[in-house]
Design a protein that fits this description.
heterodimer, A: alpha/beta, FAD/NAD(P)-binding domain, 3 domains, 7-stranded mixed beta sheet, 7-stranded antiparallel beta sheet, 28 strands, globular, B: mainly alpha, Arc Repressor Mutant, subunit A, elongated
Chain lengths: ~525, ~110
């Protein structure tokens, strides 16, 4: 029997954060993870995260994973891989399957940070090869370096569906469409916009009804749904795809909490069956905690804080942390968490459809919610997104209240302000000069900042866009400018390609377009 | 704990065009199989699992439970919260008997 102060189950963002926090306070921590590599889903995440600096904003997910692992190693946290916890027994004893042995371990406290699994929806042919979870597609691409298919249908427009769609495009796949049974796109507008501007169509109020093909997917039939999510006969469309990716939400993996005897509840807002927990993540079984997606589906950024909160509570109860210091830290983490749990995508606003304005009182774009892109007349309602100055300057197409502020720190001239409430839309100070350095463009996790110079040359404007595809076009290349909907609108010439290490793989690609397209041209294609 | 409802659907079983749809891939249980046992009197997730083995395969219900719970609940006209869930018990992941036979009882020195 191995004995520890704390056992953490799961080496993802919540589990590793919990282990690091506890080890720093002097606890002897053991982490068990059933996978061959640690990091949970973080190493699949090649996009930049949202939030503020304290939440690792504008860092790519896999880098956050590398940082967490380095911290854990430095502190001597034992991370056991290929080690599946099969059950939690009385007295906080766990049974671990390691290789082909079973091992017993015991601790004063246990933190369950087992994460979540992807939901599937059954439809005709869903059991054919070629129907895969979006997370599985992401693992194939970003961990194994394998293209999941050539032409993809993405089912589900939450952040997972949107982020994976973009990554499929980056990997060189075609995305035939993103569909969602709901009347509106579920994920961040900026994630949808960066997919839409490459020409991917969005079909809201649509579902997949059949995977065609004999032994594997050779096509997909989608159809419009009525108010009860039932397919409307006669609205079927056949798409030529070889892969159907399912991104219809996640379910917390709470079985271990069940084996421990924790009270569970079916809570749709938290994504399924989850343990009943207090503000520190402690379940109904004393000294057994649950943190991260296993306790309720949220973001990796919140999971990291939740892991830390459970860890300090366990440390305090075991005498590794004084009451005053505990309260101070708990308040600090609670404040950090509440910064992230704001805005129209916050857990408390999940499923709400009655929001029509931003916190600032600007009308929310209906087109962004239905089609994934802003209509020109909607853009003008947002001061930060409006083109109205001579000389190069940022145009920020950030139109939903999402907790995120790296753009504010990116500009060394103080041109962009978000303020203390990081869910607010950025404000551009027109009196501050813009040198066109592109740091704001690269820092925006939503790829929503463009640098526009309406008077670049007589009759021509320049539009700088964030570009994350390979090969990167060279200066002098000629092609087309695409609008927000992904339709080619005019000829474009690449006039510069700027990249520095600080931009972290986001290239500032500047194209020259006829002046009248300055506020429409938002993507470039050869 | 969910309340146990002893109630079979009042209407007779009516076949549906997608009754042959596989719901539990591991154990190859169809939508029709599940609907039929509900009409025969089963009314909780655990009962249906024991009778048909859905949720007892490799995924241990992680993929299929949500879907077959939905089918039972719809058939009974109740909420999925009312029919309970598959009881989570050790081993929560499939394990071979070999693994259990190789039980390490002595503490290994690191």
């Amino acid at each position: 029997m191995m004995r520890h102060d704390l056992i953490v189950i799961g080496a993802g963002p919540a589990g590793l954060s919990a282990a690091i926090e506890a080890a720093r306070l002097g606890m002897d921590v053991a982490v068990f993870d059933e996978n061959a590599r640690p990091g949970g889903q973080l190493f699949k995440q090649i996009h930049k995260f949202f939030g503020s600096k304290e939440h690792h904003a504008k860092e790519r997910g896999f880098r956050i994973g590398e940082d967490l692992l380095a911290d854990a190693e430095k502190l001597g946290v034992a991370v056991h891989l290929n080690a599946t916890v099969m059950g939690i027994y009385e007295g906080r004893e766990v049974l671990v399957k390691h290789e082909d042995e079973t091992v017993h371990a015991k601790a004063d406290a246990i933190i369950i940070a087992t994460g979540a699994a992807e939901n599937m929806i059954p439809f005709t042919g869903w059991d054919k090869p070629g129907v895969i979870g979006a997370g599985a597609a992401q693992a194939l691409m970003n961990l194994q370096g394998v293209m999941p298919g050539k032409r993809i249908l993405m089912v589900g427009s939450g952040n997972v569906g949107l982020v994976v769609s973009f990554q499929l495009l980056q990997a060189g796949c075609e995305v035939a469409a993103v569909i969602d049974a709901a009347p509106r796109i579920g994920g961040y507008g900026v994630h949808a916009a960066k997919v839409a501007r490459t020409g991917v169509p969005f079909y809201t109020r649509h579902t997949v009804v059949e995977a065609l093909g004999k032994d594997r997917v050779e096509g997909a039939v989608i159809a419009e749904v009525d108010d009860h999510f039932q397919p409307i006969p006669g609205t079927e469309k056949t798409l030529d795809v070889d892969t159907i990716c399912i991104a219809v939400g996640l379910s917390p993996m709470s079985q271990l909490a069940d084996t421990a005897g924790c009270d569970l509840v079916l809570d749709r807002k938290r994504g399924g069956t989850v343990p009943v927990i207090d503000e520190y993540g402690e379940t109904s079984v004393p000294n057994v905690y649950c943190a991260g997606d296993a306790a309720g589906i949220e973001e990796a950024s919140t999971a990291m804080i939740l892991g830390r909160i459970s860890a300090i509570r366990a440390a305090e109860k075991a005498g590794f942390l004084g009451a005053a210091e505990f309260t101070a830290r708990a308040d600090e983490y609670a404040a950090s968490l509440s910064k992230l749990r704001r805005g129209m995508f916050a857990p408390q606003n999940k499923g709400r459809t009655d929001m029509t304005e931003t916190d600032e009182g600007y009308p929310l774009s209906k087109s962004l919610l239905a089609h994934g892109f802003l209509e020109p007349n909607e853009v003008s309602a947002f001061p930060c997104a409006t083109v109205h100055e001579v000389g190069v300057h940022p145009v920020i197409e950030c139109t939903q209240n999402i907790p995120c502020n790296p753009c504010q720190d990116a500009c060394r001239f103080g041109c962009i302000t978000v303020g203390d409430d990081i869910v607010k839309l950025p404000v551009i100070d027109e009196t501050k000069r813009c040198t066109g350095c592109g740091m704001c463009v690269a820092s925006c996790s939503g790829q929503a900042i463009f640098l526009v110079d309406e008077a670049y040359e007589p009759g021509y404007a320049s539009v700088g866009i964030p570009y994350e595809f390979v090969p990167v076009p060279k200066a002098g290349a000629r092609g087309h400018a695409l609008n927000r909907a992904g339709a080619p609108i005019c000829d474009a010439e690449v006039v510069s390609v700027k990249y520095t290490k600080a931009m972290d793989k986001t290239v500032l690609l500047t194209m020259k377009v006829p002046a009248e397209f300055a506020s429409e041209a938002r993507f470039y294609r050869d | 704990m969910a309340k146990i409802i002893r109630r079979a659907p009042e209407t007779a079983f009516v076949p549906q065009p997608d009754d042959d749809l596989i719901i539990c891939r591991c154990e190859e249980v169809t939508k029709g199989d599940i609907r039929r046992v509900v009409h025969a009197g089963l009314s909780t997730t655990n009962e249906v699992k024991r009778w048909l083995r859905c949720g007892m395969g490799l995924c241990q219900g992680q993929t299929c439970q949500r879907n077959f719970q939905g089918i039972i609940a719809r058939e009974l006209g109740v909420s999925p919260a009312d029919i309970g869930r598959i009881t989570g018990r050790s081993p929560v992941r499939p394990a071979t008997i070999t693994t259990f036979a190789h039980e390490v009882t002595e503490q290994k020195e690191a």
